[in-house]
Design goal:
4-stranded antiparallel sheet; Rossmann fold
Amino acid sequence: MSDRNDIPPQDTPILTIKWLCKRFPLASGSARRKSEFFAVNGISLKVRSGEALCIVGESGSGKTTLARMIVGLETPCQGEIYFKGQRVDTARGRQAMQLRQKMQMIFQDPYGSLNPRMTVKQMLMEPLRLHRRDLSRKQVKRLIKEVLNDVGADKTWLERYPHQLSGGQRQRVAIARALVLEPELIVADEPVSALDVSVQAQVLNLLMAARKNKGITFIFITHDLAVVESIATRVAVMYRGQICELAPREALFDQPLHPYTQLLLSGVPTLGGKPFSRQPRFDDSPQFFENLRGCPFYPRCAKAQPQCRREMPILKPAHDDNHFVACHAVEAALEAQRPMRKPEIASGLVKVHVAAPIRANKNVSSRDEPKESKTSHDQKIN
């Protein structure tokens, strides 16, 4: 497999997402009562140019909905999406056509995304006919030939229909259709989940070669953590429509912070490894999560606190500016490990800072201190 670090990502973001939300209505027994399900709930994210960002999470966490909103196939209920400074979610007409040329998507099911009435040649020529009208017929043929060569496809496939191709061949055609317009960003929604292991490696090598040779930015949606470890530069972990942890690949696999990330990594099967950790049962009904105002992982979390049910955690830097986590318990643990800060910076630690000089007094021993009443202690502080 190609080296994932051949192209270091640039600091300039190619894609910026601000507080993105997407709601879907839920069927209810009462006609008066309307309920909604947040597939994506308040996601903010920046994707740097040239990187390979992998988004992982269990089914129903909102990964595909987020991917479809990025490329304009779904309209967000709230939030903004910017591609190189241009607004994506409100683009219409000619502006939308220009953005579609620069942003392409590879779908999970290649057979469902390919037109059964078109040959491979027709499917590759159609995007060029819509977006690259300046090309001559000779240039179009040369470009199609180059793309087929890049994805390892045979020229004899040009006159075949999708049902005449195998699963791996159809996925190569889908990748070729995404590459033919020479986009700057490709969103791949589980592009290898339906393929054999040997074919998976070939397809991933094709995508990483395109990133290396053409400088394309990739957003991968996947369940396979082995694939993530092989190709990702950064990893975003989603749970119930929110990003709970965002970190470089090495940091996430070496030191996962969020309990849900730890749960995902503990479930990866290994030869001769420890058995899967059993998790307590929890209420996964929509009514339960509809009334939950705090952390969505609260019912399953072994580190849950009363604050987790009341307050929604915010994605904050953990060890450095590259590792972010949204968890009250992790935030409290990291805060306890940091050096003492001044009272004006952390007002919640004022009492600790005031009590410290009293312990240093020679007239007061550490044994006598717990025996003091609250009233006498306050009088000493005053």
